[in-house]
Design brief:
It is a single chain. It contains 7 helices and 13 strands. By secondary structure, it is an alpha/beta fold. The protein has a domain of about 140 residues: Glucose Oxidase, domain 1. Strands 1, 2, 3, 5, 7, 9, 12 and 13 form an 8-stranded mixed sheet that branches. It has a 3-stranded parallel sheet with strand order 4-6-8. A two-stranded antiparallel sheet has the order 10-11. A hairpin with a 2-residue loop joins β12 and β13. α2 crosses α6.
């Protein structure tokens, strides 16, 4: 299957693929450590995020800045269509990196969602917006004096996975996977092929075939 641009590609992936089948395709390609930790969860069950990583590195701080949010604002204002914010906070429990206003600004720039290895706030508003958010927890606190962005569009580790800028990230209720640039076409094609094979397997199981019979036939489980 061919796609003309990233928008077409990511719309197709959101419709046809899911994290588990992409993880399987990554395994087949030899990339077995591309799934973020289990505690990075979607804010709402139906959330699906897919796009190119716009990486952010945030750290805990312990004094109130005279110019708060400076690089955080710069990072959000730099977002492009089809970006997904992927933020590492080193699992901070004192800093809320993301909220409603940032999501509103991100959506206006065409971003597709956010993945935070850390806390968020404004969860009611974010859920009402249906803006895809993945995070480790939530809290009402502001980030000023608690966390600060050090850099963006830089290599980070998020949820235990090394993420480079512009790599494809995909998240759903099962979790979040990261597709390296070098194998993205191979992995996406393999995932689509497996979805097709799973459809055939499922249909034969429904008709009464044994699991052994369909596994021996299709090699899919």
């Amino acid at each position: 299957m061919k796609w003309n641009n990233d928008t077409e590609l990511f719309d197709m992936m959101a419709e046809k693929l899911y994290a588990a089948v992409i993880s399987d395709a990554l395994d087949r390609a030899g990339y077995r450590n591309q799934t973020m930790r289990h505690d990075i969860r979607p804010l709402y069950r139906e959330a699906v995020v897919v796009g190119r990583a716009m990486t952010v590195l945030s750290v805990d701080v312990y004094e109130i800045s005279d110019e708060p949010y400076q690089m955080e604002i710069e990072a959000v204002d730099s977002l492009k269509p089809n970006d997904v914010v992927v933020c590492s906070t080193n699992y901070s429990t004192r800093n809320c990196f993301w909220g409603e206003l940032l999501a509103t600004a991100a959506r206006a720039r065409g971003a597709r969602g956010v993945i935070v290895e850390g806390f968020i706030r404004d969860t009611k508003q974010l859920t009402q917006m249906q803006f895809p958010v993945f995070m480790t927890g939530m809290s009402p606190v502001d980030s000023n004096g608690r966390g600060d962005v050090l850099a963006y569009n830089t290599s980070i580790v998020c949820g235990g996975v090394h993420v480079n800028p512009a790599e494809i990230v995909f998240g759903d209720y099962d979790g979040v996977v990261v597709i390296p640039r070098a194998v993205e076409a191979e992995v996406i094609e393999a995932a689509l092929e497996k979805v097709s094979g799973e459809d055939r397997t499922r249909e034969e199981l429904r008709k009464g075939a044994t699991l052994r019979e369909v596994y021996d036939k299709y090699g899919i489980l």
